[in-house]
Write a structure and sequence with these properties.
245 residues; Rossmann fold; SIR2/SIRT2 'Small Domain'; alpha/beta; elongated; 2 domains; 3-stranded antiparallel sheet
Length: 245
C-alpha cells in the first residue's frame, strides 16, 4: 500500500482515518479566513456578510462578497497538505469533514468530503434548503431564481443557522481508528465538539501552529507546524509500524 511513493505497513490496511480540517489548510493556498484580526474579513464585518441577519439586511452586499470569494477560489490551487491527505486514500479509508467552503480537498483528489458549512460552488433556494444547484465559479445576482421560484443564495451555513451535517459528521467520527485535526484551533462550535465523539482507542493527531482549544491534550499528539509541514511529519509517523500494532 502506498501514498506518494511511500510504503505503509500492512497493519494500516482498512483503518478509517477521519480528517477534521479548518481554515488554516486553505490559508496556505492563499484563501482568506473568516477570522482575521479584529473580526474582519478583508474589511468586512463577518456578521454583515456571513450571518442570516446580514443576508436579510443587505442581500446584495452578501452576494457581492461571496461572488468575490468564488472568483478567488477559481484562481488558487490545492497545496501539499491537501495533496498528502488525498494520497492517504492509497493506504487508508479516508473521510474528510471540513469546515471550509472551498473545493480544494476535492480538487486534490479526496473522494469522501463532507462540508459542514456548505460549499461556495453551490447556490440554494432562499426558502427551501433541499434545493441546491451547482453554479461552479459563476456569480449569483439579485433576481436569480431557483426552480421553486425563490431568490438563489449561497449554499453556505451562516452564523445563526443550523449545521445540517453535524449529526452525520459525529457518527463518522465515532468510527475513526485515526482522527486528524488540521488547520483549526477548535474554537468554532458545534464543529469543535466533534472530537468528543472519537473512540477511546483512536489515534489522535492535531496539526496547527497555535495551541488548540482542547479540554485536555491527553492521548493527542500535537504537531505544531503549518498544514503542509505538519502533514509531511504525519506521513512519516504513519510509516512507523509500531504505532498501529
Amino acid at each position: 500500500m502506498t501514498a506518494h511513493g511511500l510504503t505503509f505497513s500492512w497493519l494500516m490496511q482498512n483503518k478509517h482515518l477521519v480528517v477534521l480540517s479548518g481554515a488554516g489548510i486553505s490559508a496556505e493556498s492563499g484563501l482568506s479566513t473568516f477570522r482575521d484580526a479584529g473580526g474582519l474579513w478583508e474589511g468586512h464585518d463577518i456578521n454583515e456578510v456571513a450571518s442570516i441577519d446580514g443576508w436579510r439586511v443587505n442581500p446584495a452586499m452578501v452576494l457581492k462578497f461571496y461572488n468575490l470569494r468564488r472568483r478567488q477560489l477559481k484562481e488558487v490551487e490545492p497545496n501539499l497538505a491537501h495533496q498528502l491527505i488525498a494520497g492517504l486514500e492509497d493506504s487508508l479509508d479516508v473521510t474528510v469533514i471540513t469546515q471550509n467552503v472551498d473545493d480544494l480537498h476535492e480538487r486534490s483528489g479526496s473522494t469522501k468530503v463532507i462540508h459542514l458549512h456548505g460549499e461556495l460552488r453551490k447556490g440554494r433556494s432562499e426558502v427551501n434548503t433541499d434545493i441546491e444547484i451547482e453554479i461552479g465559479y459563476e456569480d449569483i445576482k439579485l433576481g436569480d431564481k431557483t426552480p421553486d421560484g425563490h431568490q438563489m443564495r449561497p449554499a453556505i451555513v451562516w452564523f445563526g443557522e443550523m449545521v445540517p451535517m453535524i449529526e452525520s459528521a459525529a457518527s463518522i467520527v465515532s468510527t475513526a481508528d485515526i482522527l486528524l485535526v488540521i488547520g483549526t484551533s477548535l474554537s468554532v462550535y458545534p464543529a469543535a465538539g466533534l472530537v468528543n465523539y472519537a473512540p477511546e482507542y483512536a489515534k489522535k493527531f492535531i496539526i496547527d501552529p497555535s495551541v488548540p482549544d482542547l479540554y485536555s491534550f491527553k492521548d493527542w499528539k500535537h504537531i505544531q507546524k503549518s498544514a503542509a509541514k505538519g502533514m509531511e511529519e504525519l506521513v512519516k509517523e504513519f510509516l512507523k509500524k509500531e504505532n498501529y500494532e
